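Example 3.2
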Amino acid sequence: MIKPFADFETLMNTEQTEKLPKGAYILRIMKTELVQGDGLTSDRIVLYFDIAEGQYMNFFKKQYDSNTFDNKKWRGKYVLWLPDNSSSEMNMRNKRRFTAVIKAFQRSNAGYKWNWDETTLSGKLIGGIFRTEHNEFDGKEVSYTAIAWLTDVTTVRSGNYTLPEDKDVRKPTHEGFVTVDVPDEIPFEFN
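Structure, written as tokens:
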């Protein structure tokens, strides 16, 4: 006779959750969180959202509520990295993305004007474009839907967007590399 594992009863009472198809959705920001950088990463705003309209309305709340595990997490979130004043390529990309997201919020919410207070984004609408991502967990290939970028709600409602290609987010392996014997002395000089 085999021994039951710890979460068996919990899993037996858990319904299979519906998978969100890749596509474009109108989102409502439920909460914002300013996360301070730790020296290795920069400051960022985490936007917690849910789908605000249509067939998949409240998708992430339903998913959260149906999860019976102790370590459940809200899955609808977008990380907006805050740029600083450096001129690095990464920071310039963050500036463009940050500006595009703020423009999308202003276009999506009549009368809204960004005032550098991230909490004013709570309750606001914005468009979200989602793609399928492929990954590997515990040696098994998995696919899931993840937010690719934010846009204004008019773009989503008009259908004037292109869905992104699926993305493979697996960490690269080092297969194909070979060990090479390296001599103790390099046969040339550095200048």
